[in-house]
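Exercise (ungraded).
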Amino acid sequence: MNGEESDDALLARLAAGDAAAARVLSLRLAPRVFAHAHRLLSDRAEAEDVTQEALLRLWRQAPAWRAGEAKVRTWLYRVTANLCIDRLRKLRDTGLEAAPEIADDRPGAAEAMDARARASALQAALATLPDRQRQAVVLRHLEGCDTREVARIMDIGPRAAESLIARGRRALEARLAGRREELGYGED
Amino acid sequence: MAKTERGQKRDDPLERYFEAGRNAPERPDPAFLARLAEQAAGMAADHRNREARPLRGTALGQIREALGGWPALSGLAAAGLAGLWIGIAGPGPIADPLAVLWTGAENAAGSTLFGTDFATVLEEG
């Protein structure tokens, strides 16, 4: 343990009215929630709205939170993903789905090899996946959750989670196959 | 032989993309983060205030609040006591209320309007 106060402990202090603990917890969790929401939505403004809503729900929940029963991180990933999926559905229903914000206008060759270009290519490919596949792949490979945690967050069985991850990966490989040369991978 | 996780990752054609994605998460605006932190502090203050008013959360406290607080409750109690006293004291029987009203109406019709006999005014048109 690195001496850092746990999320549970800070949340309990927030529930008891400790404003300083609330600020610390917010500054710790908000970037993670925002990054996760952006990976699912590919839109900064929407990701900000989702981050604010997810954290507000956690703060409201704080007095009833039972430490040890659920991990704050798991709870937040679940709420964030649900909010994101709701938004994506609404955007699709209204035909206003945002085009992914991808900083992908860089010239090819050497510059395209940098990590930012790879990250952008990945984000663009992720945006084309079905919502649940995208969520599963993001949780497993970008947020670092193991398959059991992915299943818990998505409220499905471990086999279903594995299946979603595998299908998502296959789709990603197909989408990114055409870009390997461009991104400097070739046949390595 | 089963490959180690590191070996699997090395052979994974997607791993470089994932690594790039992990290392370059989208970062929120600092002003947005500051706003969220203040919002969290505000929620903490709300929780503290709620704790300072323990009755508010109980069923009795909620009923009291719904009725309008202590002033409304004391009025209600006074009215209740008055009703109880009337019930116990049992005032004597009163005359037939309709008869009283009827007599009152006859008297009113026969009375003068601004000092003039009302019936006379009607007859004269």
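Further reading is listed at the end of the chapter. For now, observe: Chain A touches chain B through 48 residues (CB under 8 Å). Residues 103-112 of chain A have pLDDT under 50 and may be disordered.
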